[in-house]
Amino acid sequence: MILPSVLSENARIHARRPAVLDDDGMFTWAEFADRVARAAGILRHLGLRRGGRFAVLMRNSFRQAELLWAGYWSGIVPVPINWRLSPAEIAVILEDSECSLVAAEEEFLPVLDSPELSAWRKQVLRVEATGGRKAEYEALLAAAAPAAVEPVLENDDAILLYTGGTTGRSKGVRLSHRNILANAWQIGMVSGIRTGDVYSHVAPMFHSADLHGTVGFLMGCSHVYLPQFTPAAAAASIERYRVTIAHWVPTMIRMFTEAADSTRHDTSSLRMLFYGSSPMPVEWVRAVCALFPGIELFHCYGLTETSPLLTILDSASLRSCLESGDTSLLKSAGRPLPGVELRILDGDGRSLPPGEKGEIVVRGPNVSKGYLKRDRENAEVFRDGWFHTGDVGRLDEDGYLFLVDRKKDMIITGGENVYSSEVEAVLYLHPGVSEAAVIGVPDDRYGEALFAVIVPRAGVTLTAEEIIDHCRAHIGGYKIPRRIAFVDALPRTAVGKVQKAALRARYRVTQGRALG
Predict the structure, then answer these.
(1) Number of CB atoms found within 10 A of residue 70's CB
(2) pLDDT averaged over every residue in the chain
(3) CATH tag for 410-507 (out of 3.30.60.50, 3.40.50.300, 3.30.300.30, 2.60.120.650)
(4) With bands split at pLDDT 50, 70 and 90, how would you rate the model's confidence at 300?
(5) Which CATH architecture has domain 1-8+26-177?
(6) Cys staple from 427: which of 31, 39, 130, 436, with CB 3.0 to 4.6 Å?
């Protein structure tokens, strides 16, 4: 089965049911499918063909959704771009993916005027955030001839998602039609999502978390797109469109439960809330249950390479924890989804028994075929039929997965993945920095915050403000360390490796101002 089949079936079976609910109006499944076919016609008119790629630089919107589905429809692979990245980081992705077009929202057109992106200035499809008679994109759509579905294969690339942001770490993950649809079926089997539900797309659509919403397409749900999360916007959207399903990160959930705006709107329609990136403290879980009586909570674990989910801690298990008083299971990421095989391996590749910590490896129909142009990484990560996640975890006797550490030193801040080596590489560009290490420390708002530990060059005096300004010129804002310590030396092992565990132990309780 391929993704266009889902859209065609919805247009046939649910022709008059709402597919999109938006300030610009309601679009039925028949209307949305027509818009997708016309958007595919625009792409073909602009010279793109099956197997080609185009970038999407937009906030969440149904127009971005129809462009992504236009790619699926025509066999042209969309490459959603994180709009928080710097122009230099965006250029790396565009070059690596060989995109021949950038579909950009008006807000981000100035970004394309940057010197680093000059090669793509004449290859831009302008997309307005709202419709209207003067909207260029809507005029193009109305004039376009609907394109016929391209007979793609289920193992063809459907989308290319990038996991990092700089030259050393950025990798394009190739996800096929089979990968994405398999995960949608897996989620549907354990969640109870159904036709008539209203799915709110809150996770950025450049992020693999939004692929979770494919199950909503599979089930014929209605879809609402939130351009950017704030508690007020989320609450108003739930009330206006009677949203029933959302997928948030713990940071969003805490912001929502603590905001006065959350109680000023009727949010009683929300019946199902998925959350991922990290477990939630028990008091946060109780706060959600108090705010949304009867809510079904699901804790998820996954990666971009797994389209995205691998495990789910189901609502019944969560409720049972709260009712029994034994909340230890709340730290679990749940059990593998149907069709997912998960093992814990030691350093020699041998399976470990329950309770033992090791690397999490998985296989299943939702696992990516690999990274674009990364033969070495593919050989290391996708081997012997298994995907080696780089995450460390353990299984209990009942098959529940507990994450222990991130083998790759990845930091999750506000739901965004940041590799410490990316930030360290930027810090080393500063002439006054001799050594640098970046770690994640607990943060009440974002889950983790970036903390940089820096050894200045001899005779050089650095300030936190100077380092932050330097980083701002090279990387996206969410990757910039906001807490900085200046030290005489970094702790190292006998073979010279930085002991990040020692740094985490030293700085994990540090809050507030940067340290000097």
Answers:
(1) 27
(2) 92
(3) 3.30.300.30
(4) very high
(5) 3-Layer(aba) Sandwich (3.40)
(6) 436
